[in-house]
């Protein structure tokens, strides 16, 4: 397991360095103006020396202990990014556990009802959840809430912005919709694969109750296949976080990252495309570290939970 | 009777009619004219107009008919997602199939998919979209198509690799080696049938996923294409100039409160398309499984 952890840290370092190299691309451009000062064209040319210089400019204050710079309110970018990240973690962490818990529960339910009439509530809803974009569910929920608000049934909820607990709850629900269906599908196919295995037949022949068989034997072995997908779930959660935070104006890490990274869409002079590299570097650091941590935790959890892994391999 | 394939095909025909015959219909305003205000018996109405006989799906904030916008954008939307998926599958096929034959390619595929396992797709694409050579490039759309394609190359490459490994483990494959097939015959007769099924079904379902991904970009305000408008006093602004479906979602925050018909019709047509691809993909898989009596 130690090897795998070292490998993951190296992968993280590589991914982070590549992002930093891209971020520190030189950004000055030359503006060609006409006789009366009107815009003619913008030219961008890459040079290695300019790139090296911009990396040096970024690293020098960092190494001398000045940190990553401050924003216009004199807040250090790193602290600001951490504060915003905490806001986002309130969405991502519950959504992660909710989608794993309910996803597996839904997958087990789908498996149990696969040949019965109730499969309409089981397999068919999972199918619907996978093929319909979660944006549809979010919009439907938002419209229902608006309708209830107009009718005066549910009032006083503040669902936009980042201040209120109800906004957090709704955003967690929005975030966990798709990963939940995704995991339900994964769980269902993992259980179906286990179903034919020899040891299940043996256990069944020995008269182990089907409840125990499902939860103790099949699910425990199936977890290996389910845990492979935790990285996908984390990636999806973080990716969708941008959409959710933008849609509900929840000002967390994804929202601010987007604000900082978006270069101006207007060019006035050669400096127009400059970014706050310190801020972006901090957010990038937290996002990638979060993925790394999730990977490490799932690695350790696998070691404890899964029968195959406890056997001493790796 | 393959229900998924039948329903999926019918939906595909509807989409094709919408895309190619749609522009010929009289209700469609191919010029996409803007309308400032409308005089009715009750006074003056300003856009966005709700659905009416004139605009069956209502109009957006500039007074443009939503149905006409959707028809006008259909062809471009399909071209863009097709381009993304074709590029993605060409690179993935080289990496995924190649990794069976060459250790170097296998290493490359594994580095690629591990690198991108640290980069959430939306995060990476907006990171890339803001790079200096992207913002004012004439080839911005092409660049972004390549980037969006690249983000998922690792995943699809792994799918191809899994299909190759799956076939190579089967007893019939050994029979092929023993009987002295050349490499090409082995590939054509032993790998390709399984690979083709993987390719076709994943290709179709990926088109749906990609459509949704670019819709998500539009929600957060990242567009594939831009035109340049001069600003008074010097300078230039990049603005979105295509009618591709997701651009209709750019004002989603306000539209969901005051012009919900714009959001509902756009998301509706995107959902319809995604379900079409999803049904077709699983329908084709079922068709081949029934045909070869494979039980998976």
TrEMBL record, chain B:
The keyword 4Fe-4S does not apply. It is a multi-pass membrane protein. Keywords: Membrane, Transmembrane, Transmembrane helix, Transport. It holds the Pfam family BPD_transp_1. InterPro entries: MetI-like, MetI-like_sf. Residues 91-280 form the ABC transmembrane type-1 domain. Its main location: membrane. The chain crosses the membrane at residues 7-28, 78-101, 113-136, 142-160, 211-231, 256-280. Gene3D superfamilies: MetI-like (1.10.3720.10). One of its GO terms (cellular component) is membrane. GO terms for biological process: transmembrane transport. It comes from the Bacteria. It is found in: Membrane. PANTHER family: OLIGOPEPTIDE ABC TRANSPORTER, PERMEASE PROTEIN (PTHR43839:SF3), OPPC IN A BINDING PROTEIN-DEPENDENT TRANSPORT SYSTEM (PTHR43839). This is ABC transporter permease subunit. It comes from Jeotgalibacillus salarius.
């Amino acid at each position: 397991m130690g090897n795998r952890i070292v490998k993951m840290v190296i992968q993280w370092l590589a991914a982070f360095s590549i992002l930093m190299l891209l971020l520190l691309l030189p950004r000055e451009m030359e503006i060609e103006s006409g006789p009366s000062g009107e815009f003619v064209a913008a030219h961008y040319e890459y040079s290695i020396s300019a790139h090296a210089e911009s990396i040096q400019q970024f690293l020098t204050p960092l190494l001398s202990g000045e940190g990553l710079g401050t924003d216009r309110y004199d807040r250090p970018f790193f602290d600001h990014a951490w504060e915003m990240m905490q806001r986002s973690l309130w969405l991502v962490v519950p959504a992660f556990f909710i989608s794993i818990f309910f996803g597996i529960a839904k997958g087990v339910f789908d498996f149990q009802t696969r040949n019965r009439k109730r499969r309409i509530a089981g397999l068919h809803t999972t199918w619907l959840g996978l093929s319909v974009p979660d944006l549809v569910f979010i919009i439907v929920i938002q419209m229902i809430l608006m309708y209830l608000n107009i009718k005066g049934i549910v009032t006083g909820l503040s669902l936009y912005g980042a201040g209120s607990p109800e906004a957090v709850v709704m955003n967690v629900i929005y975030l966990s919709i798709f990963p939940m269906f995704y995991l339900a599908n994964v769980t269902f196919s993992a259980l179906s694969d286990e179903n034919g295995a020899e040891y299940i037949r043996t256990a069944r022949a020995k008269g182990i109750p089907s409840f125990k068989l499902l939860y103790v034997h099949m699910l425990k072995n199936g977890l290996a296949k389910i845990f492979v997908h935790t990285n996908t779930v984390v990636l999806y959660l973080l990716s969708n976080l941008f959409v959710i935070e933008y849609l509900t104006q929840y000002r967390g890490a994804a929202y601010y990252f987007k604000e900082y990274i978006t270069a101006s869409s207007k060019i006035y002079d050669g400096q127009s495309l400059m970014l706050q590299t310190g801020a972006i570097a901090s957010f990038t650091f937290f996002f990638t570290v979060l993925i790394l941590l999730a990977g490490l935790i799932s690695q350790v959890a696998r070691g404890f939970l899964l029968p195959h892994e406890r056997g001493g391999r790796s | 009777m393959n229900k998924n394939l039948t329903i999926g095909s019918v939906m595909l025909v509807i989409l094709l009619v919408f895309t190619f015959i749609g522009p010929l219909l009289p209700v469609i305003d191919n010029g996409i004219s803007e309308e400032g205000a409308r005089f009715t018996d009750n006074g003056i109405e300003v856009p966005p107009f709700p659905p009416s006989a004139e605009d069956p799906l209502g109009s957006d904030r500039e007074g443009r008919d939503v149905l006409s916008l959707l028809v006008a954008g259909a062809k471009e939307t399909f071209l863009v997602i097709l381009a993304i998926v074709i590029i993605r599958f060409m690179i993935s096929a080289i990496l995924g199939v190649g990794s069976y034959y060459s250790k170097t390619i296998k290493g490359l595929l594994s580095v690629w998919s591990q690198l991108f396992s640290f980069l959430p797709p939306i995060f990476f694409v907006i990171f890339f979209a803001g790079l200096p050579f992207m913002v004012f490039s004439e080839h911005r759309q092409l660049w972004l198509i390549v980037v969006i394609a690249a983000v998922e190359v690792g995943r699809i490459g792994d799918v191809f690799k899994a299909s190759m490994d799956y076939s190579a483990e089967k007893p019939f494959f050994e029979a092929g080696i023993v009987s002295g097939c050349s490499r090409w015959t082995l590939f054509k007769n032993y790998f390709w049938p399984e690979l083709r099924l993987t390719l076709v079904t994943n290709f179709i379902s990926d088109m749906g996923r990609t459509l949704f991904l670019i819709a998500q970009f539009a929600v957060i305000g990242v567009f594939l294409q831009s035109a340049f408008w001069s600003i008074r006093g010097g300078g230039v602004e990049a603005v979105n100039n295509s009618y591709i479906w997701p651009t209709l979602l750019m004002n989603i925050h306000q539209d969901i409160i005051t012009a919900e018909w714009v959001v509902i019709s756009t998301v509706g047509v995107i959902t319809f398309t995604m379900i079409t691809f999803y049904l077709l993909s699983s329908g084709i898989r079922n068709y081949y499984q029934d045909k070869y009596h494979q039980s998976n």
